[in-house]
Amino acid sequence: MGDFNNPYTVRQCSKCQENTEYFCESCLNCIPKHQEICYTHHNNVIGECCKPCNQIRKTMNIIKTEVIFHRRALLAETKSDIKNCKTLFSLFQSDTIKKSEKLKNLVESNLCDIIIKHRCFNQNIRMNKLLHIIQSYEQLYEQSAMTPVQFLLSRNKNRFNKLKTIHHLRQHSLLLMSKSPCKKALTDTLVEFQFKEGGKRCLQKDALLNHTFKITDADVCKHISCVSSDKTCVSDYYNNLVLIHSAGETIHKLKNEKNDFLLGFHTAGCKRDIFFIDKDFNIMKWSYEMNATTIVINKTDINLSWRPECVNWSASTETLLVGMHNKYTMTGKVTLYDRTGTLTKIITPGWFKKPGCIIQNNNGDVVVSDIGLPGAVVGTGHGGRHRFSYRGRLSGLNFLPRGICADALCNILICDEETHTVQMIDMNGQFLLHLLKRPSGILAPYSLTYNMHTRLLWVGSMNNNRVCVYRFITNLDDLTEKGTPQKKEQRRTNHEKYVSTFELHLSFKLKDIRNCHHISYVTSKSVWVSNNKSNLILTNVYGEAEKNLKDVYSGYYIGYGLHTVNREKELFYIDKNHNIWKEPLAQNTTSFVFIKNTDPEWRPQCVHCSLITGDLLVGMYHVHTSTGDVTRYNNSGQRILTAQHDNTGLEIYRYPNYVIENNNGDVVVSDLNAVVVTDRGGKYLFTYTGHPPGSGLKPRGICTDTNSHILVCDRRTSSIEIIDKEGQFLTHLLEDRVNIPHSLCYDVNNHNLWVGYENTNEMCVYRYNLQKAALDDAHPPRETVRLLYTRVSNMDTDFD
Questions:
Q1: In what order do the strands lie in the sheet with 331-337?
Q2: Which of 107, 120, 200, 381 could in theory staple to 385 by disulfide, Cβ–Cβ 3.0 to 4.6 A?
């Protein structure tokens, strides 16, 4: 940059001769590396900017988007606290005055008592001195058997023993005070006064659940539009609009039933009106206070080859953004209208296929959630310049973006239907963190909106009609997954090493069955297996069927883990009428209904007999709410308890497919897209959603080993994942893209792992053992198949 005495010039647009921006002379003479755009003609590239100017501009951008917002957020909270201080202090002022008066009286009375005791103590000392002098004289001059002094001492002996010798008044004042009820009251009063150290005010760093509710007039929450601080508009599966209060009560409902799939088809406009796309692809304005709808943009004004898919009202520019899709060319574009419906601009970047949701960020960027395949979140700047295309955190993994929104720091929040997470990226499309990973209650986050005034994030579910409202303010330096150097060093040092022995013991072909969806262990040479054709077979290690139960269940309305074996080798299974049967292993015995299903809304999905307590665990599914639970029955078929919610009262199960009990008593469920673990009493512990965290999981069969490690078949990676009892990932086994592991069973006596596959009738039995490494890393033991891996603690910096 030039010094302050150099003259400054103005760069003008070559088309309209209007001023662009002010640059110093060194900027105008520097090598043309950075280009500026005219404010009026966005396609006219002019001017250059030097590196120092770019750095200053980035700093200013950070100040505008982050620093100023943080200060404003803190200032708003401080002002609110100042207003509440007088009210809060007044509640305690009268009580404090009463306690202070009580303390004053107690202190005065005790002080007087202490002074009296102090005087007595001094008098006692003086009296003892005088007695000592008299006694000395008596020993010298008096020779009688009983002297007067001895007589006096004998008469006052008991009284003098009661007097305690006090060496220091300060050390023993509390001891004296504790002897009297009045002085004890003084100490109790002093204890009531508590002082806390003040701390530095800081912004919250977590997504904290503010409140949650269910929408009574909607089955799902496909899209959310924030109308005001206390009103929100949501849409259901059939595109009906429901205006609700912040607690979920319905204010108005507008029918807009449409077969076409539209995601972000409504938005809150100016004066609390709601813009939406109707079933005829007209863009309407709904004035809910007057309960009237008017056409803003008629479909005849739109090219027939282009259809509106999503809308968003930008309050900063008072512009209506419309995401368009051409079904013939499979391309998308963005058109801008004013509040009267007049077309002002067309942005045709060609960077996305089918817009699902559209927003305008605080920095002016237009961000589109592209629901075409492959999915992406595309950001464009002024004039339609491409800024970024975010295609998910991990390459090679499907990315299905749905609802999007932006917070006050210009960060972009995205619902990913593939991994059931809410991801956060910055304004440049760089991944920051997983804000939510399969959150309880929602289970499948689908829609988002952020209220700039209340700083609340609304998250809706496509799985049910529940909406959760979170409060969060993010400090990017602390929440990025890169972390600080100190945290990196901690991750490198805080780890444990294990050695896993995994070698093939035997394999055989199953007869009369094409695949294996579930395995129940009976003996070291026989197991019960089931497939997707409603058959349940007892087979030996030669693949021969010793017993065959046909057409016992319905594959469309049941989970995979439909049978189990107890400690007495008796079989339990779920039939096609959703009853649980008991089948003894002995010959000439009759099976019977152990638990009859009396509630048609709740259907058993999976069962497991506890080898520890003998209880029967049953995974249930509710057909209307699309949620589940795990019910525990004793060996008489009586219900003991039910696990369904976390500590906040939100549902934790969506569709239980398998359920088992770990050696430590925890209940492990292979749910839809997650592994959910509770303790024996039903207390929620954790949810595992794959490795790396947030990458997505398609769990199938599960089992546990003697070390309480959890083994789960993951259909996404076609492998077996091992996690510890706290939910930390350990390693992969059988990473085979040809054969997909689907079912597991662990023989605790012989340490054998039985594996069944989804696409073949072959069953394999492996010798499996997992222990902490006792040898040096440089000389690992050699065996047929050996895996050496490291479990790193605290690898994930995300939060739920």
A1: 306-314, 319-326, 331-337, 343-347
A2: 381
Lowest mean pLDDT among 67-71, 337-341, 475-479, 781-785: 781-785
Listed by start position, the domains of the chain span 9-49, 83-192, 208-482, 552-688
Entry pTM: 0.70
How deeply is 154 buried, as exposed, middle or buried, from its count of CB atoms within 10 A (0-12, 13-18, 19+)?
A: exposed
Burial string for 633-669 (b: 16+ CB within 10 Å, else e) reads beeeeeeeeebbbbeeebbbbbbbbbbbbbeeebbbb
Contacts for 588 with CB less than 8 Å, ≥ 6 apart = none
Token reading at 409 = 């720091």
Longest dimension (CA), the chain: 138
Write the class of the CATH domain 552-688: mainly beta
User: Is the four-CA dihedral 486, 487, 492, 497 of positive or negative sign?
Assistant: positive
Question: Which residues, other chains included, contact 260 with Cβ-Cβ below 8 Å and sequence gap of 6+?
Answer: 279
- CB-based contact 473:635 (threshold 8 Å): no
Report the distance separating Cα 310 and Cα 323, nearest Å. 5
Mention every residue, 6+ apart, whose C-beta is less than 8 A from residue 451: 226, 229, 457, 458
Alpha helix (H) ranges present in 23-67? 25-29, 51-62
Instruction: Say how far apart CA 236 and CA 143 lie, in whole Å.
Output: 116
Residues 6+ apart with CB under 8 A from 47: 11, 20, 21, 23, 28, 35, 36
Q: Give the CATH number of domain 208-482.
A: 2.120.10.30
Q: Which of 215, 324, 318 has the alpha carbon at shortest distance from 262? A: 324
- Measure Cα distances from 118 to 113, 121, 134, 168, 183 in Å: 9, 5, 25, 10, 16
Query: What pLDDT was estimated at residue 576?
Result: 87
Radius of gyration of the chain (CA): 38
Kindly tell me if the per-residue pLDDT of 533 is higher than 60.
yes
CA-CA-CA-CA dihedral for 126, 130, 136, 141, to nearest 10 = 180
